[in-house]
Amino acid sequence: MEKKIACIAFALLVFASCAKQDPGTANIAVANKMFHAFNKHDWEAMANCYTETASFLDPAFGTEYVSKSRQETVAKYNSMTKLFPDLHDEVTDMYASGDKVIAEFIASGSISDSVKFKIPIAIVLTIKDGLIVKDATYYDPPAEGN
Fold first, then answer.
1. Does domain 22-138 match CATH 3.30.1490.190?
2. H-type helices in 41-106, by residue range?
3. Residue from 39, 13, 24, 144 nearest 91 by CA
4. What is the pTM of this model?
5. What is the DSSP letter of 65?
6. Bridge partners for 94 per DSSP
7. ∠ CA(78), CA(70), CA(81), 5° rounding?
8. Tens of pLDDT along 81-101?
9. Distance (Å, rounded) from C-alpha 85 to C-alpha 41?
10. Angstrom distance (rounded) from CA 126 to CA 25
């Protein structure tokens, strides 16, 4: 009887450990959800991948982290799609480590039929409880007049 109980307990332990989702897998799912919403230009859905107020490091905001609300994030991307109506991110690689997801992607779009751009970007997302709390985006902004 004790052997049978031990076998059942072991089986339950194995099942429970297999049923737990790897945090890296869950965090990559959050990042993929954010990129999917971005490419659909669904700024509300994208902003909902972040906490109500998240920290952003982005050359568009300067050289220091800034706090932005979901509403401010939606406003930023609404204005970007007015300038670049075909804005799109093509993720080329994504890695997870602990609470971080690192992604490499190519941002592309156009201002008009004759002015197109492609910019390689790297992003480090910090995710807590299924939401992005910190977004550090690295790229070289286009030079003035280019």
1. no
2. 43-47, 70-83
3. 39
4. 0.80
5. -
6. 103
7. 10
8. 998 999 999 999 999 999 999
9. 9
10. 14
Q: State how far the Cα of 125 lies from the Cα of 47, in Å rounded to an integer.
A: 13
Whether the CB-CB separation of 54 and 132 falls below 8 Å is answered with yes
> Which residues neighbour 99 within 8 Å (Cβ) at sequence distance 6 or greater?
23, 27, 126, 127, 128
Sign of the Cα torsion 143, 141, 74, 90 reads positive
Alpha-carbon span 34 to 50, nearest angstrom: 9
Residue with tokens 């009887």: 1
pLDDT computed for residue 30 by the predictor: 97
Name residue, tokens 């954010």: 34
Strand order in the sheet with 131-138: 66-69, 50-57, 131-138, 116-128, 100-110, 88-97
Q: How many CA atoms lie within 13 A of 13 on its CB side?
A: 6
